[in-house]
Write a structure and sequence with these properties.
By secondary structure, this protein is of the alpha/beta class.
Length: 364
């Protein structure tokens, strides 16, 4: 019989945690579920839930967004992107075009899509036009893009890749001089593809309690309970609290598609800098569809600055789990969803946007 949220909360309270335990999540969906369910208010004060680098839009490099804007403005193309990317600003003068949304308003043909299949459909419906699909996302986004490539795509469809792997960011945090968490809730959707075993390095190499979670309060509370038990008992392992869809090995077919269609490269993360072996780029056999090879002049080297954020914006610290979203200097003042300054206030998976939408209006 399934354990309900009330029972799990009682079990957590029965653990009688006396010293603060910091638990980080690296999935925007987890943060949204945690915040909207009010789990922080239901847990003991000694348990701190920290949002980490789990929003692909938030960490999408500024230079990639800038390049997408310039391609759309200066080339005869239709540019496609997921909707959350439209309002992410780049650092430029306020009277210049700073977002895809503004570029669209100025006349560029930029269209939001929700899935890779829409990109293929638009390319086939417009064979005389060049279609550029700006791809930003983690393994869960890149796997269906790989499937799209494997099935064959129209010759007029180009990809501007900004895909990322999740685990290297966690490895970077764990290898830093200031680890800000004592336990990890691993991302359920990523583990569906890559397997729970991908996170063994967290427990085996760093002795950090780890649990894979789904997106219901019950699954998240089960993961929280698991890592707290591990922390108390000193028996550290990777616990799969999302067995409905996650197994140890993951999805071999999806992994094969990723490996055959992409090469893994050192890649920049906005707010963090360059992380080794953390990016997906098209493999050489798909060079004909690589937008970077078609439009190389729009890559702005001057924008490749590690950790760059708009002046006064603390999104980098939020992404790294160093501060709470409402501790940012701009949060709720000049930076709100209707006028986002930093990327964390834009996306539905951004911690600042999630906290604001849930009623957290200022520092506390």
């Amino acid at each position: 019989m399934a354990t309900d949220a009330k029972q799990l909360l009682q079990r957590i309270n029965d653990l009688a945690i006396t010293k603060k335990v910091r638990i980080i999540n690296v999935c925007g969906g987890h943060e949204r579920s945690i915040t909207h369910a009010g789990l922080r208010s239901l847990l003991p004060n000694t348990i701190e839930l920290i949002p980490g680098p789990g929003c692909p839009v938030c960490i999408c490099p500024e230079e990639d967004i800038y390049q997408a804007i310039q391609i759309a403005l200066n080339e005869a193309v239709v540019l496609l992107a997921f909707g959350d990317l439209f309002r992410v600003p780049v650092n430029t003068a306020i009277n210049n075009i700073r977002t895809l949304e503004q570029a669209k308003a100025s006349g560029a043909d930029i269209r939001p899509i929700a899935s890779p299949t829409e990109a293929v459909a638009i390319a086939r419906a417009n064979p005389d036009q060049t279609i550029v699909f700006f791809v930003a996302g983690f393994e869960t986004t890149c796997a269906p893009v790989a499937a799209m490539l494997f099935d064959g795509i129209p010759s007029n469809l180009l990809l501007l890749m900004s895909g990322r792997l999740t685990w290297p960011a966690v490895a970077l945090l764990l290898n830093s001089d200031n680890v800000t968490f004592d336990a990890l809730i691993a991302p359920g959707h990523v583990a569906t593809i890559m397997g729970s075993n991908q996170w063994n390095f967290v427990s085996h190499q760093h002795h950090i309690p780890t649990a894979v979670a789904g997106f219901t309060p019950e699954s998240l509370l089960m993961a929280i309970y698991s890592v707290l038990r591990q922390h108390i008992e000193g028996k550290v392992f990777i616990d799969n609290c999302y067995p409905q869809v996650v197994n140890a090995a993951g999805n071999p077919k999806a992994q094969q598609l990723l490996a055959s269609c992409f090469r893994v490269i050192d890649a920049p993360w906005r707010g963090i800098g360059c992380i080794p072996n953390s990016g997906y780029e098209l493999s050489a056999e798909f060079d004909a569809h690589n937008a970077r090879l078609h439009f190389p002049s729009y890559a702005d080297e001057a924008r490749k600055k590690a950790g760059i954020m708009p002046p006064g914006c603390d999104c980098a610290k939020v992404i790294l789990g160093q501060i709470k979203p409402n501790e940012c200097r701009l949060y709720g003042e000049s930076c709100v969803p209707r006028n986002p300054i930093g990327p964390c206030m834009v996306s539905e998976e951004g911690a600042c946007r999630i906290w604001w939408s849930s009623g957290v209006k200022g520092a506390r």
